[in-house]
């Protein structure tokens, strides 16, 4: 006679198996992420995530770009630990969602919730929310025409959020020196990482509030940014009029806004970068020695961009992952830490 297993017992068993599998990925004293982390405990995890994303994209063409941005904003704040997904708890957790770079800007949380629910149905207590963001980012790029890469997995979910650190995420208003420093601060010291990861702006949208200064009052001059292509500026003033709705959105890439390709860089070559933090990679005087030549290379070769982007995503995914069970967990709900 077959015995029945309670959901609680199944979840506990799933966590135990995940922890055992983590030990298989150990190298030396520190746990390392690995591509086959869920092969035994949740072998269909990738396909489950992909199905939810494909369904979501049918009603929201922006969702792929939004999901990769969630992964970026998560990893740059105390590492890739799913902290961005946590809702606020008065007196306990000050949610990163309310930090200025995120508030009213980052999106896609309900889709992450659907992915988590689907995974919990199939493999309760096994796949972390931090890993969901990593998987969703890769699938989003691939389904938009971009490269595929081996996703390193095995992260646990963090137990805290960091509002203050989230307030210092790379900004559309940062100059090149500040951008380089913010990347170095999280361990991304190779200039290729900065240029390649910026290429995620080859799809998706940005709010007008992040470009209006370039159009009407660049650096407080009362004039537009002189590096901005005049024809493109005329187009943008129609999309983002002076004193218009700052929350209105416009395409980051005016040529192929929903395709992952090298056009972000070909746009920079002709001064058609939307954000100042994009265009400075090509036009800033301090970019000419190292940064601008990387832009030139990616504008010439999509293969070079794709290879570098894939490696830079792996590099970013390795920022301070939580792998010690005493410091993390597999959340049952990505929006909150598990009950004690």
Automatic annotation (TrEMBL):
Residues 1-31 form the signal peptide. It holds the Pfam family peroxidase. This is Peroxidase. The lineage of its organism: Eukaryota, Viridiplantae, Streptophyta, Embryophyta, Tracheophyta. Removal of H(2)O(2), oxidation of toxic reductants, biosynthesis and degradation of lignin, suberization, auxin catabolism, response to environmental stresses such as wounding, pathogen attack and oxidative stress. It comes from Panicum hallii. It is an enzyme of class 1 (oxidoreductase). Disulfide bonds join 42-123, 75-80, 129-334, 208-240. Residues 32-338 form the Plant heme peroxidase family profile domain. Ca(2+) 1 binds at residues 74, 77, 79, 81, 83, 96. The active site is at 73 (proton acceptor). It catalyses: 2 a phenolic donor + H2O2 = 2 a phenolic radical donor + 2 H2O. One of its GO terms (molecular function) is metal ion binding. It is found in: Secreted.
